[in-house]
Every structure is written in structure tokens, then in C-alpha cells.
Amino acid sequence: MVSSDTFLRHDDVIEGFGLTIGEIRAFARRQFVGSVVVAFLVVTVAGFVALWLCTPPMLRDYATAHKSRGVEQPAFVMSSDRLVATTKRASEVR
Predict the structure, then answer these.
(1) Cα(first)–Cα(last) distance of the chain, in Å?
(2) Dist CA 33 CA 45 (whole Å)
């Protein structure tokens, strides 16, 4: 049988650290919760990146092109020389 004197109690101070058993357990608990939260964030970001990479490039390019300012649709305008030539040609054909 083991005597109760060999076990560390909640309020025993560990020499060299100056902390009680309860303080060390509380610190370890906080570290564990923090690690779980960080792991959850890493998995969430990795999931979003994976979903973004799985979308077809056409959809990704469309979204980025239409959300940015300064993007203009191409305008097909005839030059003045071409317009004069087209007008002359139209009058000759009639």
C-alpha cells in the first residue's frame, strides 16, 4: 500500500519553479486550449485555400476582374480613316 505522503497535493510547491501543482496544471490547461484553437484556425484556413484552388480558373478570373476598379470593357471603334473609306464605299455601291 502507498502512503498519502508520496503523492503531490494540489497546493504543494515544486522546488526550482516556485509554482504549486495547481498553478502548473492550470498553465498546462491554458496551453492545451490555445493549441486547440490555433489548430482549428490552421485547418480552417487550409480548407478555404483548398476550396479556392478547386474552383475553376474561369470563375476565379471573372470574380477578380469584375471586383477591381479601373477595368474597362474593350471598345471596338473605327479609326477616322477607316470611317471615311467605309462611307465612300457605301456611297459608291448605291
Answers:
(1) 119
(2) 19
Kindly state whether residue 84 falls inside one of the protein's structural domains.
Answer: yes
The model's pTM is 0.48
Rounded Cα–Cα distance for residues 74 and 52 (Å): 28
The average pLDDT across 41-68 equals 75
Is residue 74 situated within a structural domain?
A: yes
State the alpha helices, DSSP H only, in the chain: 21-54, 57-67, 80-93
Please state the domain count of the chain: 1
Which residue segment(s) compose the domain that 23 sits in? 13-93
Quick check: is 7 in a domain? no
Return d(Cα 33, Cα 25) in angstroms, integer.
12
Q: What is the pLDDT of residue 62?
A: 56
16: three-class secondary structure by DSSP = coil
